Amino acid sequence: MEIGSLLYALIPSWTSVSIYMIYLAYVAIASFILPAKVVPGRTLQDGTRLHYRCNGLLTLVSLIGLLGIASNMNLISLTLISNRGLEMLSTSFIFSSVVASALYIAGCNSRSQSTSLKPQFTGNFIIDWYMGVQLNPHFLGINLKFFFLRAGMMGWILINLSNLAKSVEIGSLTLSMILYQLFCLLHVVDFLYHEEKLTFYWDIIAERLGFMLIGGYLVWAAFITTIQGWWLLSNKVELSIPAAIAICTIYLIGAIGYRGANDQKHQFKMNPKEPIWGKPPKVIGGKLLASGYWGLARHYNYLADYLLSLSFSLVCGFSSPIPYIYPVFLIVFFVSRERRDEARCAEKYKEIWGEYCKVVPWRIVPYLY
Ligand code: NDP
């Protein structure tokens, strides 16, 4: 695609803006009206606790059901998103930038509030806009951080399903596309099924909401993670059965480790005495888990997530680096994220953290890093 036509394709049309806004409105309204399990979040610095309505999976399933009905009645085309990928991407980017700016302004206006959770500023506008100034901003009663996170994960599946419909329409459906779709769908369903455990994720407990997270959810999680699906639309890959089995094995190791590590930490936080892998947990200083996956490396969950991302890309073969943009980025992302989390934990847990690092010396990859 020439640079001129690429730039032209990036200009959002009213249709893409409308699709985007209707989608976000649906996610917001459904999260209020559909039945939900209400879970308390972590206790915040000022002693308060937020409550989260967890019904992400039901929201996604109902949305897919509604889209199926609308498509059967010829009200919409399932390839709508696939046909407008670039402008949907730029719409998402512009929307994330606008929201980050609005949150920065709202933070400035509430600078004087008295709780210990008042907005934090570094004084550098770019950093504050990018990293955010408020921990848990709300709008019309919606917890924005939680909302954008689930909107991004659901968006990932909607884009993929639209690309699947497109590949059927143009006759390019392959084993690679089927495996890629299946892997992502299982990952997102697993994520939303365990949504209540998000309340222990670092994003939720510690990160302020700025462009980094909003763009991370709405642009990165929804669009960049779908890059393999977009690529497979115009590139045919002949995947042999042994190669497919090997990639499925990598996916399974990643999926089991991802769920296992995140569940073990959640279980430990809820009930520190519950056995891990059939044995009483090894606990450092009464606060840090050092058994199970958390005894293999201090962030085995990142390694497992990385294996998932690798399996998404491997189905595309090795003829192009484009499908590997996601796993390559994740290396940089996880290494820096682990360093920042490490600094936070060292400050929070003091000498206990040092002791944990001695017992579990590996950061992400056991015996390697
Ligand atoms: P973690 O779930 O690893 O959470 C880190 C926090 O857990 C720490 O700040 C600390 O918080 C607590 N903790 C750390 N070690 C221990 C321990 N040994 N025992 C008890 N508590 C401990 O990190 P993330 O929130 O970054 O990641 C969650 C998941 O989300 C991961 O699986 C990750 O792969 C995934 N993810 C994926 C992304 C992607 O783009 N693919 C992006 C970001 C995350 P506390 O104060 O509670 O003790």
In short:
The chain is mainly α.
Please, could you describe this protein's structure?
The protein is globular and about 60 Å long. The model has no long low-confidence stretch (mean pLDDT 92). The protein has 369 residues and is mainly alpha-helical. Strand 3 (138-139) and strand 4 (142-143) form a beta hairpin. The protein starts with a helix and ends in a 10-residue tail after the last helix. The protein has two domains: 1-237, no CATH class; 239-369, no CATH class. The strands form three sheets. Strands 1-2 form a two-stranded antiparallel sheet. The protein has a two-stranded antiparallel sheet with strand order 3-4. Strands 5-6 form a two-stranded antiparallel ribbon. It has helices spanning 3-10, 14-33, 56-72, 80-83, 85-109, 125-131, 144-169, 175-193, 202-206, 211-223, 227-234, 241-270, 293-296, 300-314, 325-349, 351-359; strands spanning 37-43, 49-54, 138-139, 142-143, 283-284, 288-289. Helices cover 64% and strands 6% of the residues. The structure holds NADPH dihydro-nicotinamide-adenine-dinucleotide phosphate. Residues 201-203, 205, 258, 262, 265, 268, 288-289, 294, 299, 301-302, 305, 337, 341, 344-345, 348 line the site of NADPH dihydro-nicotinamide-adenine-dinucleotide phosphate.
Secondary structure elements and their pairing?
Blueprint: H1 3-10, H2 14-33, E1 37-43, E2 49-54, H3 56-72, H4 80-83, H5 85-109, H6 125-131, E3 138-139, E4 142-143, H7 144-169, H8 175-193, H9 202-206, H10 211-223, H11 227-234, H12 241-270, E5 283-284, E6 288-289, H13 293-296, H14 300-314, H15 325-349, H16 351-359
Antiparallel strand pairs: 1-2, 3-4, 5-6
Bound molecules: NADPH dihydro-nicotinamide-adenine-dinucleotide phosphate.
NADPH dihydro-nicotinamide-adenine-dinucleotide phosphate (NDP) binds next to helix 9, helix 12, strand 6, helix 14 and helix 15.
